[in-house]
Design goal:
The protein is built from 4 helices and no strands.
Length: 98
C-alpha cells in the first residue's frame, strides 16, 4: 500500500495526436481533455489548441506558439522546436507515404 501507480500511457502517441490536431480539424477534439495527456508539455499544447479552436481562431503551430508565449508557458527555444516538429512526424500526416 502507499505505492503510487502510473496510468498506462504512450507519449509518442500523444505527440502524434497533437501533431495531427495542429494540422487538421478533428472529430476527437470535443472528447479530449487535458488530463488525457500524461506529458505536462502535451497538456499545455492541448490546452492551447483547445482554447484557440473554441475561439474559432487558427490553431496551427505558429498560433499555438504565440498563445503559449503570451501566457509565459513556452520560453525555451527547445520547446518551440519540439512544437514545430509535432506535425512533421509522418504518423501525424495521412498524406505521407513511404
Amino acid at each position: 500500500m502507499g505505492e503510487e501507480t502510473t496510468v498506462p500511457h504512450c507519449v509518442d502517441v500523444e505527440a502524434r495526436l497533437l501533431g495531427r490536431l495542429l494540422l487538421y480539424q478533428n472529430e476527437a477534439l470535443p472528447h479530449l481533455k487535458s488530463d488525457h495527456f500524461f506529458s505536462a508539455k502535451h497538456r499545455l499544447i492541448w490546452q492551447a489548441i483547445s482554447t484557440l479552436k473554441a475561439a474559432h481562431a487558427p490553431s496551427g503551430p505558429v498560433e499555438v506558439k504565440d498563445h503559449l508565449q503570451a501566457r509565459g508557458e513556452l520560453s525555451e527555444q527547445a520547446d518551440v522546436k519540439y512544437l514545430y516538429g509535432l506535425p512533421d512526424d509522418p504518423a501525424s500526416n495521412p498524406e505521407w507515404s513511404a
